[in-house]
Structure formats: C-alpha cells, structure tokens
Amino acid sequence: MIASMTGFAAATREVAGGQLAVELKSVNHRYLEFQCRLADDLRALEPVLREAVASGLTRGKVDCRLTFTPAAAGERALAPDGAAMAALAEASARAAAAFPQARPLSVYEVLHWPGVLADTLVAPDQIREDVAKLAAQAVGDLTQTRRREGDKLAQVLRERLDSMAGLVAKAQPLMPEVMNAFREKLAARLAEAAAAPTDERIQQEVVLYAARIDVDEELERLVAHVAEFRRVLDKGGACGKRLDFLCQELNREANTLGSKSVSSDMTRISVELKVLIEQMREQVQNIE
C-alpha cells in the first residue's frame, strides 16, 4: 500500500486543567521536514511531537501545531495570587523609595503582572505523556489520510501504465512494415536510375538501415520498466524515490524511440508515451 505525502489530521484530548489539541498538515518534500508551532510555555514538548512524527512518517514536509485550552479560565481571573501580589507590593515599595517621582502601579498593571493571576496552564512535564499519546493518534490519522490519497494515486498510475503498454504493443509490429517499405523504395529508386543492383547489395543496404533505426531494445526496456513499475506499486511502502527513478528511465527510452523514428506512427507513439510519462511523474512526486 503506497501513501501520498499530502494529508491533514487533527486530534484533541482532555487533560487536567483543560484540553490539548494537535493539528498536522503535510505536503510533498524530498525528505522528512518537521516544523512546529507552539506557545513558549509548551516549547519543551516539541521533541515529543518530533519523535511521534519521525516514528510514523518517512517523507514529507509536516507542519505541527499544539495548543492547550484551559478550563474555566474566567473563574480563575477572579482569584489573584496573594503571595505574588505581596512580592510585587514589596518590590514596588522599594522602587518608590529609590525613585519618589515614579508613578505607582495601577490595578490593571498589577493584575497583568506575571504570576499574579492564577496560571491556567499546566507544566509541560505534567502533560508530556498525554501529548505523546495525542501526537501518536494524530500521526495515525494522518497516515490513514495519506494512504487513502495514495490509493487514488496508484489507480491513476496503473491507468497510465496500461496505456503505455498498449502503445508499446502497437509499436512492436511497425518495424517489419517499415523495413519492407524501405526495401521496396530502395529497389524502385535503383530501377529509376537504370542501375542493376544485385539482391545481395539491396540486402546489405537494408541491413545497415535496420541497424540504424532498430528500436527493439528500447521497446524491450519499456516493457521491462513498465513491469517493474507495476511490481513496485504492488509491493507498496515508501517507494516514491524508486518510482521517480523509473519515470526517468521510461522517459529516456521514449526519447530514444522518437529520435530513431522513421515513420509518423512511431513518432506519434513516442510523443504519446512522453505525455503519459510526464503525467506519471507529476503524480509520483507526491508519493512517500
């Protein structure tokens, strides 16, 4: 089963004092890149999130967001911390003694002083285990989303492979027809020139021409690459880089097929092959 690198997942978890929420967004990337958006008081939990993502994903640019919503924050605002206010008052008195012209603190400034109002956020150590479980759940959901997207990509790729196999099958019988046409054309031109060539001479020219335009090797490699592409898709797993390499090889053979083409049918087949391969490469770029 293959997986796309594009996906989204969100999960929440109730903890003591509030609710944790994790959001994960991923897009295609050459390697695994992790970015995290956290409040400063939760920054210590970033390694937990990074470890969860690295254990479940191998490629993609992952944007992670962790938030904590405290419960009953409005009630806590009515209960300022007495010890914090006493410490602030003492510090304010000392400052006023040293600077008599200084303006005294207002009620607003006192209430907004760090630590005066009861802190609604829990310590990171207290919720580390909850964050780890929540992150694992979100990564699992993200993986399922990416796999569903991967199934759709696999279907598209298999359709393109079927079309390529059909084009290669059409190209294989064209070479004998091209050779017969060349032999007849060569004999007619020699006859017009009033030459008396032997059958051996004509055969030599035909052999030289056939060696120059022979595409049997290219067609065989196209068949082999298509079969390998199918095998990798069926095997699944993190196969995006291998599929991208196979697309490059398929494109190489299609280009060679076009450069050796001596008929409009072969040229058309080469162009259609390259169009299909380019469509496949666009999809493969998003596979993990």
Can you offer a commentary on this structure?
The protein is an alpha+beta fold and 288 residues long. The protein folds into three domains: 7-73 and 125-146, Ribosomal Protein S5, domain 2 (2-Layer Sandwich), CATH 3.30.230.10; 80-111, no CATH class; 150-284, Butyryl-CoA Dehydrogenase, subunit A, domain 3 (Up-down Bundle). Helix content is 62%, strand content 12%. It has ten helices and four strands. The chain has helices at 46-56, 73-76, 82-98, 107-111, 124-171, 174-192, 199-213, 216-235, 240-259, 264-284, and strands spanning 7-15, 18-27, 32-37, 60-70. It has a four-stranded mixed beta sheet, covered by helices on one side. A hairpin with a 2-residue loop joins strand 1 (7-15) and strand 2. The longest helix is centred in the middle third of the chain and has 48 residues, at 124-171. It is rod-shaped and about 120 Å long. The chain starts with 6 loop residues before the first strand and ends with a helix. Residues 73-77 have low confidence and may be disordered.
Count of structural domains:
3
Largest β-sheet summary: 4 strands, mixed
Question: Could you give the distance between the termini?
Answer: 11 Å
Give the fraction of residues assigned to helices: 55-70%
Mean pLDDT over the full residue set: 83
Taken as a percent bin, the fraction of beta residues is 5-15%
Count the helices. How many?
10
Sum up the overall morphology in one term.
rod-shaped
Q: Order of strands across the widest beta sheet?
A: 1-2-4-3
Which structural class do you get from the secondary structure elements? Answer: alpha+beta
Low-confidence stretches: 73-77
CATH class descriptor of the largest domain: Mainly Alpha
What's the total number of strands?
4
Rounded Rg: 35 Å
Query: At the third CATH level, what is the topology name of the largest domain?
Result: Butyryl-CoA Dehydrogenase, subunit A, domain 3
- The H/E string reads EEEHEHHHHHHHHH
